């Protein structure tokens, strides 16, 4: 195969048949250098226009090649996607299943393809009555299905369940996890088949079974006991670090997890061979055992603590020795969890800063996503990202722009050339506004709004009936948590535009949505807020001078509200000092939305907000974008906003009640003692 790869390399310029080339690309993909990979990608792009739009197999092999080399090259993916879209009515279940699997691996999202394949697969439901083909349909259509299709799939699967093989049962359980299924009857049935075949599964399959059963809240002492026995038997003979880490991970998920000294010694023995993913998996598993093992409820044993220290040591050592950004990125791109954040995040950022000259148009979106996910503000990394965008913007695909903008939005940071940076990003996107996935467009609009950047073209693309209907269609394909997140982001963008850009005359249309959401969990206070509430009542002169859990126009929630007259004396509210549960009505005229419009002359409404750690960047007390935008909007609504950061309220300087009372007086009245 190496000789074949060499022949392809020497003859690449003369090859003109993309069908032959695509077969060779897939075959040699695991043997070739990064430079040769890029040459093949460029050659495939050059030859793509020589094939007609019916060549589905060629397009599929090109996507498979990109998956094999782990390269989400958007220009080629987009062209392949167009071939799939134009042939979707001729695609069979196998082809659709393979394409969706490849897209998932490459994290490439095509709303249009999902919508069309959902329609195509729904039409195929009555045609499959054999377990093998129906399982494939269940696994492919299940995560996309609406309530009716899902009900039909599950009822048919129940009828066929007795005929399922071990691998089919495993595939169905994985699909049910992805569907967030709560069909206890089907879960129980599939679990019984898994139990029957448990001895035949490989370690990685046992991990998948454990994850799915725990996620679906399935309880069976008998099944879990057998799972533990099998996992331990595999673990005792395993010598491969990645296999040991996944076995330990599965064991730690089971009820009452426990790692004995022999297993801890086994983990320690392989640590020098582990990459960051394995180290992170071990640490997460050990922390889970410490938290849930009844033996460690009152004290953490020294063996576990020493193991965590060794994991820290090997993690830092691996980062310090790293000399290639691409190799580092392969290891850190999927890292998450408390151990990584607490022990290695700072060292990872230092390593990224050391290698940041290697950030380019290929990896810039990935690095930006990592910064967003970790909430770690590194101005030098963000400035480098902005610089790469300005210098290499022609090579950056528009699909990558959202990921690039996100850390600047989330972490409330403007690069030195702010307007040029955001302007370049948007200019790059303009021709793609009509074909970008609706949810990405909503997230993009919201991200720019947090930075006070409003593009009229982008807002017109979002706030129109046709787009919103398209978005509704996509919401049906999403899991419930992502569905709700998209709806919240659209509401927040709608609110930002109404408050900051009234000249665009975009109406507020989220009254009903907000009322439904805020009725669920409105008015609850945590311990610190209850403490502040009692002290505010003392500072202001009584409980009737402060309102708690206030809902403003446009449905912002405020921890506390009070009113001061022009001489800075508190004005009482009467008997209604807490929320009555009645939701405010948003009126169409702007003056009715200003908080001070119905107050005595010279009086002002004050909004007091307690900010916990989620409002700030992880590494420094810098306010994040969402909290900064809320402050801005409350000020537009007529409030004087006082934000109380958790690190000030819980500091040694405010360790006594008197100190805290003086702090509140200073923040409200601008003096150390009460003005009354």
Automatic annotation (TrEMBL):
Stretches assigned to coiled coil: none
Annotated Gene Ontology cellular component terms: mitochondrial matrix; ribonucleoprotein granule
PROSITE patterns assigned to the protein according to its UniProt record, in alphabetical order: RAP
Keyword Transmembrane helix listed: no
Superkingdom in the source lineage: Eukaryota
TM region positions: none
Keywords: Kinase, Mitochondrion, Transferase
Localisation per UniProt entry: Mitochondrion
Domain RAP residue range list: 606-666
Molecular functions per Gene Ontology: kinase activity; RNA binding
Pfam families: FAST_1, FAST_2, RAP
Biological-process GO terms, alphabetical: mitochondrial RNA processing; regulation of mitochondrial mRNA stability
Protein name from the UniProt record: FAST kinase domain-containing protein 1, mitochondrial isoform X3
Protein's organism: Tursiops truncatus
